[in-house]
Automatic annotation (TrEMBL):
GO terms for biological process: cell division. The gene is ftsE. The lineage of its organism: Bacteria, Pseudomonadati, Pseudomonadota, Alphaproteobacteria, Maricaulales. It comes from Marinicauda algicola. SMART domains: AAA. This is Cell division ATP-binding protein FtsE. Homodimer. Forms a membrane-associated complex with FtsX.
Amino acid sequence: MAEDGRPAPQEETPLAEAPAVRFESVSMRYGRGPEVLRDVSFDLPRGSFQFLTGPSGAGKTSLLRLIQLAERPSSGFISLFGRDTALMPRDAMPDLRKRIGVVFQDFRLLDHLTVFENIALPLRVAGQARRSYAEDVEELLHWVGLGDRIEAYPPTLSGGEQQRAAIARAVVSKPDLLIADEPTGNVDPAMARRLLRLFVELNKLGTTVLIASHDIALVRSLDVPVLEIVDGHVETTGGPR
Ligand SMILES: Nc1ncnc2c1ncn2[C@@H]1O[C@H](COP(=O)(O)OP(=O)(O)OP(=O)(O)O)[C@@H](O)[C@H]1O
């Protein structure tokens, strides 16, 4: 144990081998409210695929917001790719965020851009030329069933279509880490399985994946570890033995 109370092994883990995400005794509350998460510790090893479950209000979105650096823990330590987020300078955060693809529960598509432009945005921001990604973006849009909505604007899409566009945007740049908040909440079971296959394929390419879902059938369809939030604590179950 180091002087600041942090377990010593983290300091000894070389950056390249460090887990994509490490929570150490993390607690979190909103303002002066009750603790939503209490003494939560877990690792997402690089290249792993895990689900995050728990009933409505359990704290799934809150945990994902901590990983996105959108919230700070009230105590404990969070490291991303071996870097302690509390010690990280503010100007290092945008680069770190770029390594994380996020599927938000409320989609967050830009209404004034077409579906194609929304999905291509992370690539455009990364400085890629349109001709280098146009075909890939179209193929991805066909895969998520939006082949006929490429030039549509988000407000004209159904909830399920917006969700699929949000998923395409999160995976298009093959991020190091993908976190998805109820990514199949608005689609039918066949499309949910298809989207899950997309996440599995991305994971095979090396992306670490964490999917929050309370769809038990979906969670059980893969033999991967499940982080379950029970009463503010996180318990890990399942996965290959
Ligand atoms: N911005 C906020 N301010 C205050 N309390 C919040 C805020 N966001 C969430 N909470 C509270 O934190 C708790 C956990 O909410 P959270 O959204 O993380 O749960 P969840 O498991 O994602 O739920 P759901 O499955 O319904 O999306 C809830 O009691 C919720 O009311």
